[in-house]
């Protein structure tokens, strides 16, 4: 799977082809200038070294270890600079200053592309700067204007290829995440079918029979009901963490479902900053705790999420005994900070608002909006 989602492979293959073609160009350049080369044997030796390294680097770039390990790209840069200076085997430095060609020619751009692919924009710029400085030292400062076009091409190549490689890396990472999520979803569906056909039906039967029998079997029925809800919540669970600092509020709230708590969420993700989602979930948990402590032993609760685009509303409603706003205010005065701090305080700190509707015998509804 990892190999199939490596979107950089075409770039590495293109680099291998580039090294081979540019080495052939360097050979043609030596052949065309043969009469002007002072030491032809040195030129041949330089081409042999370049050819051997082309084979070695191409083999490495064609393998996963060579693509993932940037040491090969840095070694390519060092050896390429060495091959550029190896032109001195064929031509005296004075002749190169006077205008004689550096025999590596376009072949020297290879490590710039390799570093751009492996390290992105910064790697491409590093390679371009290193090759440019080596070329400048061979040509001399007096010929800086003549090599300016070569330097510009190296910098542009490093920038463009580096940017493309970084973009493709991010796309590859997202593709792998999508494939993993799809595989997890398919596996969850397969397990859900198996669980629904077996375990959930058994638990539902135990719950019904235990309730009908009564007595000590009621406890067994309650346990079966709790396990049924837990399994259904697990089957409906989502990945809560999204890209970067984003989190899916629905994935964080679904595990709160119990035999007394129903959680209703949209079919799509509701993405919020992770810190905001965490505080909102904490406020919901505090509201559910109030239901357990104050709404009565038979009270049921419903948690609903609404995505309104610019805002998100989470409603927590119960059918318990209810209370009055005056009692809530008195609880705050008496130092019970569950409502004022754990719920209101969290939401207000997020820049949101809290609305509570309650009356004796009519339950309580919290509306948390961020």
What does this structure look like?
By secondary structure, the chain is an alpha+beta fold. It folds into three domains: 9-175; 198-236, no CATH class; 240-370, Histidine kinase-like ATPase, C-terminal domain (Heat Shock Protein 90, 2-Layer Sandwich). It has helices at residues 9-32, 40-61, 64-68, 71-85, 93-98, 110-139, 148-197, 199-213, 217-236, 249-253, 274-294, 325-333, 338-349; strands at 246-248, 261-264, 271-273, 301-307, 312-318, 353-358, 364-369. The strands form two sheets. Strands 2-4-5-7-6 form a five-stranded mixed beta sheet, covered by helices on one side. A two-stranded antiparallel ribbon has the order 1-3. Strand 4 and strand 5 form a beta hairpin. The chain is elongated. The two termini are 40 Å apart.
How would you summarize this macromolecular structure in one to three sentences?
The protein has helices spanning 9-32, 40-61, 64-68, 71-85, 93-98, 110-139, 148-197, 199-213, 217-236, 249-253, 274-294, 325-333, 338-349; strands at 246-248, 261-264, 271-273, 301-307, 312-318, 353-358, 364-369.
Strand runs, count: 7
Q: What is the rounded distance between the termini?
A: 40 Å
Rg of Cα set: 35 Å
Classify the secondary structure makeup into a structural class: alpha+beta
Measured by DSSP, the beta-strand proportion falls in: 5-15%
Q: What string, H for helix and E for strand, traces the elements in order?
A: HHHHHHHHHEHEEHEEHHEE
Q: Which geometry do the CA atoms define?
A: elongated
How would you characterize the largest beta sheet? 5 strands, mixed
Average pLDDT metric: 82
Number of helices: 13
**How many structural domains in the coordinates?**
3
Q: Work out the helicity level.
A: 55-70%
Strand order of the largest sheet: 2-4-5-7-6
Spans of at least 5 consecutive residues whose pLDDT stays below 50 are none
